[in-house]
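Limitations

Structures in this collection are predictions, not experimental determinations, and the ligand pose is part of the prediction. Treat each record accordingly. The example that follows, with manganese (II) ion as the small molecule, is included so readers can see exactly what is and is not provided: the inputs are given verbatim, and the output is the predicted complex.
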Amino acid sequence: MNGDGGTERGPAPRRTVMVRGHAVGRDFVLIAGPCAVESEAQTLAAARAVAAAGAHMLRGGAYKPRTSPHDFQGLGEAGLAILAKAREETGLAVVTEVLDPRDIDKVGRVADMFQVGSRSMRNYPLLKELGHVDRPVLLKRGMSATLDEWLAAADYILSGGNEDVVLCERGIRTFETATRNTLDLSAVPAVKALSPLPVIVDPSHGTGRADLVRPLSLAAVAAGADGLLIEVHRDPPRALSDNGQQIEPAAFARLAREVKALRAHLEGVAP
Ligand code: PEP
Ligand code: MN
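Predicted complex:
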């Protein structure tokens, strides 16, 4: 970890990653939005709702890494244009996935922070290229990656010269089938003991279940997460991807209030 990782004496010093004026790692961040940009109306509805609820960043995919090639792959450049419009209207920073190193310039014209998805955590040519960009990267944990492998993936970006990496725990594959993944909340304090990078949590992909997003979000806050990434859709059952895990705007607004109250409480009892 660039020589500034953890020491035997205690947790590593924290790093702050600036994303369009938001200091990730210093200030708690709420990143929310639909799994995929499906249309202008759907994206703007989600963007307006999450902005009104207090989110700091809009997250939506224009390029989607789908397990099946026959599933919706995203709107591509048209999706990027919609994200730019949503930022212009709401002021939210935009986080969106880049899948292919050849798309970095194109996606970078819109993204305030690139997302590298779980499936791409081991795409070393992509990570190397992102080491040379002047833009933060949200690096999701590979679904079968150990903490060491995840931090080594981050190091591909860091050692290229880009120090602005935010880690995102999004669940790992286990034998459990009741949930899509097993959200590993122990990763939050465990990684923070090893690395100065901010760590956020994605309970949407971490559970695959809308009904579990609220409890796992609150647990992530209690575990010390620097932020949350939550999928929000105006009509989850009709979403073109991840329709079992996206929550409605009203549920997100309620959760945002609860997260704020829990953080205030934890700050009050902090040693
Ligand atoms: C996503 O963020 O919509 C996504 C595909 O997530 P992950 O890479 O964690 O599966
Ligand atoms: Mn998704």
